[in-house]
Write a structure and sequence with these properties.
The complex is a heterodimer of chains A (579) and B (435).
Chain A lengths: L1 H14 L4 H24 L18 H32 L1 H16 L2 H15 L5 H28 L3 H9 L4 H36 E4 L2 E4 L3 H10 L3 H30 L16 H8 L1 H24 L15 H29 L2 H37 L2 H16 L6 H11 L3 H4 L2 H5 L2 H14 L2 H9 L4 H35 L1 E4 L2 E4 L3 H11 L2 H33 L4
Chain B lengths: L5 E12 L7 E12 L3 E6 L5 H9 L6 E6 L2 E2 L7 E4 L11 H12 L3 H14 L15 H13 L5 E5 L7 H16 L7 E6 L2 H7 L2 E6 L4 E7 L11 H15 L28 H12 L6 E3 H7 L4 H13 L3 E4 L2 E4 L1 H8 L2 H15 L1 H12 L4 E3 H8 L5 H18 L3 E3 L4 E3 L5
Parallel strand pairs in B: 3-8, 3-9, 6-7, 7-8
Antiparallel strand pairs in B: 1-2, 1-4, 4-5, 9-10, 11-13, 12-13, 14-16, 15-16
Helix pairs in contact in B: 2-3, 2-4, 3-4, 6-7, 8-10, 8-11, 11-12, 12-13, 12-15, 14-15
The chains are: A mainly alpha (579), B alpha/beta (435).
Chain lengths: 579, 435
Amino acid sequence: MQQRWGLPIVAWPSRLRPNYWDGIALPLVLGTLVLIGWASRQMSVPYRVGEALPLSLDPSHLPEYGLRTVLRMALALAASLVFSLAYAALAAKSKRAEKLLIPVLDILQSVPILGFLSITVTGFIALFPGSLMGYECAAIFAIFTSQAWNMTFSLYQSFLGVPQDLREAARMYHLSPWQSFWQLEVPFALPGLVWNMMMSVSGGWFFVVASEAISVAGQDVKLPGIGSYIALAIDRRDLAAVGYAILAMLVLILIYDQLLFRPLLAWCQRFKVEAIGTDEIEPPWFLTMLQRARLFHLLRTLLDEIVSLASWAAKRARPPRARLRRHPFARPRLVDFVWNGLLLAGSLYAVVAVVRFVHAEVGWQEVLHVFLLGLATLVRVIVLIALAALIWVPIGVWIGLRPRLARRVQPVVQFLAAFPANLFFPVAVVAILRFHLNVEIWVSPLMILGTQWYILFNVIAGTLALPTDYQFVASNLGVSRFLWWRRLVLPGIFPAFVTGAVTASGGSWNASIVSEVVRWGDTTLVATGIGAYIAAETETGDFPRIALGITVLCLYVLLFNRLLWRRLYNLAEERLRLD
Amino acid sequence: MPDDSRLICAEKICKTYQTAETPGRLVLDHVDFSLYEGEIVAILGKSGSGKSTFLRVLAGLTPPTEGQVAYRGQAVEGPAHGIAMVFQTFALFPWLTVLGNVELGLEAQGVARAERRRRALKAIDLIGLDGFESAYPKELSGGMRQRVGFARALVVNPDVLLLDEPFSALDVLTAETLRGDLMDLWVKRRVPTKGIILVSHNIEEAVEIADRIIIFGSDPGHIRAEIAVPLARPRDVTSPRFQQIVDEVYAILTTVPGREPGRRGARGTEPVGVGYRLPAASIQQLVGLLDAICAAPYSGRADLPHLAESEHIEDEELFVLIEALQLLGFAQVAGGDIWATPAGRAFAETDLQQRKQIFADQLRRSIPLAAHIRKVLDERPGHSAPEARFLAELEDHLSEEEAAEVLQTMINWGRYAELFAYDYDRGVLSLENPT
């Protein structure tokens, strides 16, 4: 054991002596610790139902509110990470669990996120009586639901895709299942996971704003945060405050981007198995600091020691007995049979229960009505995606053909996608009121305000990926403008476009709940649609109707994805892939 | 032979691949094999002969359906300590540095850090990687990557080294250097390894390295022949004795079983069924090779090792092409020589349109699958049939992937011969060409 600890101490003088970077690193680390400590104490202050929380529109409070919003975000992200690792690992390792977990995940993914909030908030409040913690948990849970599912899917797919030869190498060199999970599977999944985390956080900002001001079943709680600040600004018709909130959000997202995602993305490069594309990422300053400052070297050395000690201890405790099952295919058929039977019975029971519940509480007339409302929202989504495509495809192609410009535009677009569009809703309402516009039509663009950027982003990426040779050929053959679009560009960017459009349409469905009903002071604009229905029922706390609305919305999303997007996706995969 | 000198002993190994839907497909059929202390054994065979599967059975990576593998008398029921493997694709962890990759096996064994570092550096030094300790695999060339693969294997001081085509992803020069370095370590006993099994498809490589060559036959995989290589090291690849052994191996590997000269039926009457696994030979290469055989300096008859060298064809590719030429009745092979049949000569001497005609005739005559597809298309009212139909038929004999590959080859040949057309979008075979 002496030797185990020998090395870092020997290396101390050269490797761990402080340098200039530590000058930035040390205050940053200490400051963060203090802030986190303070903010988390605020979360669990005593609170009695009905009490009004002190909230002020004074911009000097914004840093504090911002910090608490960020903390909620971070907690939700951490929870999502833990959840997705466990869920994906289970689904990837056990065939039986997979049969249940993956369809469930597919459905969870299409449940509108604010739907989760309306259903679970009462439970969370009951969990922490007399404390603000229940509300905090509900808000964090809502953010969690906006982040966890796609991270889980990404991890699950990566776990399944670990190359066979690496798996064999891990087994050949006797890595225990625990070791190969952390040394092989998780590292392999990291690039995809980080990318999805980034998308998740982008979506998360939207729901942070929407979930801080909880108004469910007559309760109206505004947790201190940027979302509540803006809700208050809307109540008081304070356009200047809305501006401050937008500014504060900009700063927050910029900080997240600079301190978390730029470094993570750059650091992840090394985990890519194939060196696809040579888009060298410039090392972000924060990563440079992490890598240079000796403080972090010290921390890392310590962490390494702990990890290796832990795995060493695990090894001691349970010597590996790598045994092969003689006949891996002769699984106990009976167990499989019973398990499948259980799954089938369970889902049948669920269907029957839902039908009886809805029938007893609501009646079929209303079910039909809700389906029609869903149709209205569906029409909105389709029209908006088409419009967004008409606008952004030409612009995206134009940018994508200029790689230098594209490199500068891409981070901006990513940033726009992350920006919670609901902060701009009040501005839209003011405009609609001022110009006496048709509510049914002019509320619709709000649904796609935040998600249209995914289309632009992917179209730019798709155009960048088009081999320049193709363009040379086209100009060499003297292809006309029309043919150039039809034969080269549109097929070439199609796969990327579909990816972007899928994301955009999913986001729009989700946003319908907040964008079909918009407020400004005591003026409320309502458009016809399933989102408005769910929002209204959530306010009154009519549980059966909330459930009905969410189920129908869920069905629409599932069918829409199956019937349209998945087909387009397969078409793109099979026919139009460039390789 | 005394039992204790046997490092690995495999008895009556059978391996069946089975999925929930299809009945089992035999990949290995009663293979008996022993590795003795102090020897290098090379396993040669065409792709699909189960040689890689066999190596994985020996490694304990996949269990045999029947039979027993023992390592030093102990039944192998999982990757055994003392057996290390080097992979064709290197299988390095891209997020670990060279040092990290080499240390991996030791870390898994729970070797203390300082000891780990010392042994890893020694292995890195041994294989000629010093200076690259902190490099990531991505930064290295193929040859250097495979050196990391070797260092990772050697650092655990393996008793037995399993090499799964370790040089086949490398260019010729690099492969030669690495092979030389490995043999140097072996001959000078600088590694404690007692036995090596090399899976390869490069005949010369096998003859250069091995003390014994095992040749696998296909469908299902079985041991077809065993050749001893009693040559002193270092071996002179230009010596007549060396060349003679190379010729001998070529002769065995290129003869389609059941097609040896002198056996009944020259062409067409052979037991090549509809479900025969057609070699995935490209038309361009087939035509090129046939042209080369018929032209000077070979003028219709060529020595296979020479032909491979002059046409720059890898052995594995060569086997595929030669099998296809034989199946199509364009050439015959015996004793390491290949010669063109009258049909082959006629093909080589004529123009493009005539060639297509000859190719079509040979297809219908010699390839039952081609004849079958054509017959179905002729009989169906719309003269078209979905590919799924033929795939299903092939899957009676082959695995799903193999069936798809065979049909793909068939479609390529059929399209060239204008025997039938294929619509990719609809997945339909037909007699019509687009108008």
